[in-house]
Amino acid sequence: MNQKVVVITGASSGIGQALAFAFGRTGAAIVFCGRKADALQTTAQALSAAGITNLPIVADVSVEADMQRLMADAVGRFGRIDVLINNAGISMRAMFAETDPDVLRKLMDINFMGTVYATRYALPHIQQTKGSIVGISSIAGYRGLPVRTGYSASKFAMNGFLEALRTELLHSGVHVLTACPGFTASNIRFSSLDAHGRTKGDTMRDEGNMMSADECADHILKAVQRRKRELILTTQGKLTVFINKWLPSLADKLVYNTLAKEKDSPLKR
Ligand SMILES: NC(=O)c1ccc[n+]([C@@H]2O[C@H](COP(=O)([O-])OP(=O)(O)OC[C@H]3O[C@@H](n4cnc5c(N)ncnc54)[C@H](O)[C@@H]3O)[C@@H](O)[C@H]2O)c1
């Protein structure tokens, strides 16, 4: 990745921030965005202290003009884009029957349309460098998860979009990776939306028992370097995808029973 330019959305925390360090340590310049200037600056200073060239840009992935500006600024400063990592995302925890449809719309706007906008404006530059487009999807993009209908829908949409795009670009030299982490310690559960779109502010799982964001980022870096098409992480994640494919009705029961054990689960035990 030496001398390459990597654009990462939502990189002021969690997996995105870990990706900024992982790619930056290989010699890449990191262009990254988020909605909060102070959080971006904190990450920018830490990257600079580690000797990583970086450019923080305040931008919201759900705003098309912001994604156009992000890519223009990246090219304006560094002259090229080699890798786009569509990482920014939010989640939800609420039963569908009680959930305001605006919550699902917001998840689609950020997780799916954010990926569409960023990819739309990065693609012409990545076609020139024959680089990579990466989507940080989820196991929830292979297997629908109860209490997260909007999250699963947005990640299924991402997976379909990336698969179709990969096929369109088959002879272009552009690499497309769908990366699906399993449970990874981060802010995602704290920032999840409830049925009315309010932030939950807590986690319902033991964050200490999960894959770390750094480990997750290392796997994703290797998958980009090897130009893999798909990455499914964690043993639990791999098992879920396998059982869902071959024994789907067993998967219904296992997924229900597993998620019913979560601290604040509305599912009956
Ligand atoms: N942590 C997990 O267990 C897990 C599992 C599978 C997939 N993922 C995916 O990994 C990605 C990163 O999440 P994370 O776990 O590091 O959580 P996180 O909350 O730490 O990181 C998400 C980042 O996206 C940013 N973001 C949210 N909305 C945005 C917007 N509209 N515009 C710009 N930035 C925005 C947030 O500010 C944050 O920095 C997400 O797409 C998530 O769905 C996470």
From TrEMBL:
Residues 4-186 form the Ketoreductase domain. InterPro entries: KR_dom (IPR057326), NAD(P)-bd_dom_sf (IPR036291), Sc_DH/Rdtase_CS (IPR020904), SDR_fam (IPR002347). GO terms for molecular function: oxidoreductase activity. It holds the Pfam family adh_short. It comes from Fibrella aestuarina BUZ 2. This is Short-chain dehydrogenase/reductase SDR. Belongs to the short-chain dehydrogenases/reductases (SDR) family. One of its GO terms (cellular component) is membrane.
